[in-house]
Every structure is written in C-alpha cells, then in structure tokens.
Specification:
Layout lengths: L2 E8 L8 E7 L6 H11 L3 E8 L2 E7 L4 E2 L3 H13 L9 E5 L2 E8 L2 E7 L4 E2 L4 H7 L5 E4 L3 E5 L3 H6 L4 H4 L6 E7 L7 E7 L4 E4 L3 H15 L3 E6 L5 E8 L2 E6 L1 E9 L5
Parallel strand pairs: 2-3, 4-6, 11-12, 13-15
Antiparallel strand pairs: 1-2, 1-18, 3-4, 4-5, 6-7, 7-8, 8-17, 9-10, 10-11, 12-13, 13-14, 15-16, 16-17
C-alpha cells in the first residue's frame, strides 16, 4: 500500500519561497509513532496528516521532533492539496478537526483564508536567558499559551538577528516570536520565529504565530486588517484579519512536489 504525499510552499505564490510543508493523505487514523517517523524523514518544519471524517477532515501536524497543537502553514498547504486534487470542491469550505478544535479554510480568489482562534499574548517578564540569547533590547515582552513574543525597535534588528538557538531551546515554550513595525509601507509588521525545542531552529513563515501577532499589532495600530511579512531567508506574506476571539489568516500556496509514500505500514 502507498499513500499520496505532497510538498507545498505556503504563504507564497513563488516556488522555493514561503514555508514548505509536507501533506500526507491518509485513508484513516494512523499510529502517532509512525507519523512522527514520517515527519522526521521529511525533515520539514511540519508534516500534515489528513483523512476524511464525514463532512470534515481529521488533521494533525508533526515537526521532525514533536506533534504540535496548531500550525498555520501546513493547514494552508493541506487545504490547497484537497482542492487541487479534487478531494474537495472548489467552492467548498475545508473543515478540519484538530488538537486546537475546529479550523476552517476557504478560497477567496488567489488567497486561502483560514479561521483560527486568536492567541492573545499578555505582558510577562522574559527570562534573562531569552534576552541574552536574542542579543537585542526588548521594547515589550509578552507570552501566550504557546510562545514568547518580543518586540524590538525596528525591522533592521529583526532581519539581523543571529540568536543563540541552543539557549533558546532551554526556554520552556514552543518558540519565540521577534517582531517590529515594518519599514516598507506594503506591510504593517515584520517578524521571525524560532522554535529549536520543537525541532525547528527557524520557521520560514509561521501562520500560528500570526494568530498572536494579528491581535498584538491590531491593538497597537487600531486596525483589524493587517499584512505581516516574516523576514526569514525564504520570506513569506501573511494577511491577517482580527475578528474578536478569532483571527482570519490568508495566503497563497504552490505545489512543488508530488509523490507516494511507499512505506505506509504503521
């Protein structure tokens, strides 16, 4: 038995930009240890595993090291594959049951919109090891249920960051978001995301981080519709709309690889 396996670049329209995710199309539930082995083999920041469950789809995400509760770019990639392969009608809404509850994705022209829970960050002093590891002066530090968020003075600082990833790996959170206002007028804010403890030294474009960045910058800028640029080496654009306790994240996607997973036994 073999399983269809795709690699999709998310939050970009250009191949080899944005954030690559693997999408494995299952026929039913799979063993977690097997899924973890597949994710380790793919060696991307996330591999998504999806199968139909009536009107919705079960969706789980794994880094090369751990299963994660929430992942934006691999959700976008999964929805893109379901529409591209005809497993979901072009005008249908993708409904995903996940560890973070029900998520939805829909097509809006060239963009794929995803309805996520807002992830609020609250001010909290950062551990000394974190600020030392980043090597920057923090204007604001906050924490949500997943990550630390560190605001710095300008985009140049965000882009120039060379953090001590070994030290960050010992901070007891999923990852660390570093952000500032954008210099370019086409974006509202920029960010980078580091999650070495989760097996992802730097994530190219992080949808779930924007579920926090949207409310954070929306409150600061007094606007609900924002555009973020994640300034990793690959780079990617995330459109964000803050809607109360929900956040709509939107971006494009492009398939760069199609294949078969031939070691499909659990």
């Amino acid at each position: 038995m073999s399983l269809p396996l795709y690699q999709v670049d998310a939050f970009t329209r250009t191949p080899f930009r944005g954030n690559p995710a693997a999408v494995c199309l299952l026929t039913g539930p799979a063993d977690a240890a097997w899924m973890q082995n597949v994710a380790r083999e793919m060696n991307l920041s996330e591999t998504a595993f999806v199968y139909p469950t009536g009107e919705s789809f079960s969706l789980r995400w794994f880094t090369p090291a751990v299963e994660v509760d929430l992942c934006g770019h691999a959700t976008l990639a999964t929805a893109h594959v379901l529409w591209e392969t005809g497993r979901l009608a072009p005008d249908a809404t993708a409904l995903f049951d996940t560890l973070s509850g029900r998520l939805m994705a829909s097509k809006q022209g060239r963009l794929i919109e995803m309805d996520f829970p807002a992830v609020e960050a609250h001010p909290e002093p950062a551990p000394d090891v974190l600020i030392k590891a980043l090597g920057v002066k923090a204007l604001q530090v906050a924490r949500n249920r997943l990550d630390y968020l560190v605001e710095v003075a300008d985009e140049a600082i965000v882009r120039a960051l060379k953090p001590d990833l070994d030290a960050i790996a010992h901070v007891p959170v999923r990852g660390v978001i570093v952000t500032s206002l954008a210099t370019a007028t086409e974006y509202d804010f920029v960010s980078r995301f580091f999650a070495p403890a989760s097996g992802v030294p730097e994530d190219p474009v992080t949808g779930s981080a924007h579920a926090c960045l949207g409310p954070y910058w929306g409150a600061r800028l007094a606007k609900n519709d924002l555009v973020g640029y994640q300034a990793s080496a690959r780079g990617g654009i995330v459109h964000v709309r803050v809607a109360g306790e929900r956040v709509v994240l939107a971006g494009e996607a492009v398939t760069v690889m199609r294949g078969e997973l031939i070691t499909a036994g659990e």
